[in-house]
């Protein structure tokens, strides 16, 4: 996850995961100020990820 975020932020500098939409919804006033330069801003912000998963099955299947 970290390497993917690093690549889209630093190499491509494009918000392909649409963090901007989340910013627009949760912080509309701030979004109005930064939306025109969002790709540049996105490439400079720090992103923290928290992953939670559930194992629903284990072992080999398909016999």
TrEMBL record:
InterPro entries: Spore_GerAC-like, Spore_GerAC-like_C, Spore_GerAC_C_sf. It comes from Ureibacillus galli. It comes from the Bacteria. Signal peptide: none annotated. PANTHER family: SPORE GERMINATION PROTEIN B3. Transmembrane segments: none annotated. This is Spore germination GerAC-like C-terminal domain-containing protein. Residues 2-59 form the Spore germination GerAC-like C-terminal domain.
């Amino acid at each position: 996850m970290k390497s993917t975020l690093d690549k889209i932020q630093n190499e491509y500098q494009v918000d392909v995961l649409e963090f901007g939409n989340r910013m627009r919804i949760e912080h509309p006033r701030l979004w109005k100020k930064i939306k025109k330069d969002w790709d540049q801003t996105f490439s400079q912000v720090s992103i923290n990820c928290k992953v939670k998963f559930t194992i629903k099955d284990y072992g080999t299947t398909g016999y």
